[in-house]
Amino acid sequence: MFEDFTDRAKKSFQMAKDWAQNQGSEFIGTEHVLLGLLEEGGGVGAKYLARKDISLEQVRVAADKLKLTTTALPDRTGTIPYSPRTIRVIELAIEAAFDMGANVTATEHILVALIKENEGIAAEVLRNLGVGAEAIDEIREILGLPIARKKKSYRDQANELLLKHAKRLACKLLQEGRTEDASVVCDLAARVECAE
Question: Which residues neighbour 152 within 8 Å (Cβ) at sequence distance 6 or greater?
């Protein structure tokens, strides 16, 4: 599963497993992944969190306060399974690496995935400690990558299209000498722009 992960990323997941075992958990949760990332300490993900003055101890205490009941099924082989959210984090980390043009998945991609997953204990701990979606752009900057464009809402896309057509219509009306009609279209377009 981790063949395309850097050594630091693999070590983070091994440390996550150790955290889960030491805490007597029935599964490896997103909080364990975050703890493993911080304990590994040398990757871009951990260094980013250190720059934000987020320590291993802060995360451990915050995660302990948020512990919920188990969602993973017990594994009969004696290994600790990943929770469904942790599996999603692994998938999101691989996607983040691909999106950032990396050939391997590294600790920064794991951190991006923990933030993007948005519902696990790790995401809540990070939010409570002041690390939200803006961190993804900051990590991209650290790596020298362009900032990802924000996806426009359907309303913004519709307004943009409406304004584009209103401008064309106003120009056409002006060419036909219908200045009053063009003025009405421009007024409506201005109202749409102001409403945004």
Answer: 160
Give 75-128 pLDDT, tens digit per residue.
445 578 888 888 888 888 888 888 778 788 888 888 888 888 878 887 787 878
Structure tokens at 68: 């919920």
Alpha carbon 53 to chain centroid, angstroms: 20
Nearest CA to 93 among 79, 104, 82, 83? 104
Q: Judge whether 139 and 48 are in contact, CB under 8 Å.
A: yes
In this structure, the number of other CB atoms found within 10 A of the CB of residue 56 comes to 18
Question: Which pair of tokens denotes residue 7?
Answer: 């050594």
pTM (predicted TM-score): 0.65
User: How far is residue 35 from each of residues 24, 48, 68, 176, 182, measured CA to CA in Å?
Assistant: 15, 14, 17, 68, 62
Decide: 13 and 38 in contact? Cβ < 8 Å: no
